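Page 47, continued from p. 46.
Same chain as before, 212 aa.
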Amino acid sequence: MKKTITLCVALVATLIFGGKTFGQSYELYFNDSTSTALNNGDTVEYTPQSWERQIHLAQINFFVKNLTDDDLLTDQVVTVMNGPSDMEIGLCAGGNCPIPPALPPAYTVEAHRIHPDPITLKVHLEDSYSGSAIIKLTVGVSPRINPSVTAFLKINFGTAGIENAQRQEVKVYPNPTRGKVTVGEKEYDLSQQPAGIYMVPCENGTARIIKL
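Result:
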């Protein structure tokens, strides 16, 4: 009996330590590297703003920290657990943003450091999407993603009809763009500008353009 109790105590001490999994190699931070670290298996929620629905794209960031004493060659896997069957997700990691369906290569996260470049999920949004979707992000040592840490992202699409009613009538295309973009009846050339989000004036206010 004493041996059984000792074994159970040791098992609990191995599984839990200060709210984290003992021996965990990574931590994940949602949206901001200065935010509170997520516990392994946590679920976070994100609701796309109206302008993100307008451009059919939400970019959602996670930051990864290496908790070990060694530099780790890191990789990640993104899995749609529940949601629209046609939902497309692009992925940036380690400073690389390949064109889908290509995935970013493994990259090194230094010991006890947060990687400066986020893991960015580029979720393509369609007008018909409503309800919610669950996306699983698993980060671990390349190439077998083990040991790993996992976070779940719940995306709240809302009601498509309400979003469409709030949508501005001005047409913006292509968006995202790598160069020229048409806003209403005007064309802008962003080919020489760095990647980022640009505010472009239009007849209904301001259009947000994503430059890749």
